[in-house]
Amino acid sequence: MKISCIIIDDEPNALSLLEGHIIKIPSLALKGKFFDALEALEFLKKEQVDIIFTDINMPLLTGLELAEVLPGNQRFIFTTAYAEHALNSFSYYVIDYLLKPITFKRFIQSVNKIEAVNPVDARTAGETGQPKAVIFAKSGKQVVKIVFEEILYVKGEKEYVSVQFQNKRLLIYKRMKEMEELLPPYFRRIHLSYIINVNHIQKIEMNHVLIGDVSIPVSEHFRSSFFQFLNEKMI
């Protein structure tokens, strides 16, 4: 079954570029394209789609405002020319965040994330009823379900990654870069060997992040981008 989607963008060139990317992907089915969110909202009252590609900064109704009025389980990929808007999008069911101009290579990474998010039922929904994003992965001789929100951190183990949860650890045959491309935006790489879920950070001290009882170093290579990310969220 194809993944249905629509595009919303008030910039004709940006809309055309994204449309061109979508039609190259056999698994995606473009159901509509709109220059403003109000027109899209009228369409969405009658039709449902799996993914909404929407610009954030639009007149009348922004992409974030559209997300507020649609059901909580509606999936989005936000697009914008302004990187600072990414932080405001984390509270919605965001599969990915694309910074314009969107290259085809970067778009393919988003498609991989879309295809990794499987339909979920009420058993994987949170207290608010909003579904949680999941993937299925081979671990040894088993195929296991992984709920992204429950991951504390990911550690590189040569040809494998170990995925750490509160009370268990899974070893998966995948490289760190491949795993990083699958993870939602609230995961940050802070070391060649570590990707952390920022929602599970307890404190940061002396260039180390404490998650549970594990102290994870922030390497010099990733320090600048990580602390810039933190400063933007600082109050």
Could you walk me through the main structural features you see in this protein, from its secondary elements to its overall organization?
The strands form four sheets. The protein has a five-stranded parallel β-sheet. It is an alpha/beta fold. It is globular. The longest helix has 14 residues. The chain has two domains: 115 residues, 3-Layer(aba) Sandwich (Rossmann fold); 110 residues, OB fold (Dihydrolipoamide Acetyltransferase, E2P). The protein starts with a strand and ends with a helix.
Taking all Cα atoms into account, the compactness measure Rg is: 18 Å
Question: Can you tell me the CATH class of the largest domain?
Answer: Alpha Beta
**What does the overall shape look like?**
globular
Helix share bin? 25-40%
C-alpha end-to-end distance: 44 Å
The structural class is alpha/beta
CATH-scheme architecture of the largest domain: 3-Layer(aba) Sandwich
Sheet-strand content, in percent, reads: 25-35%
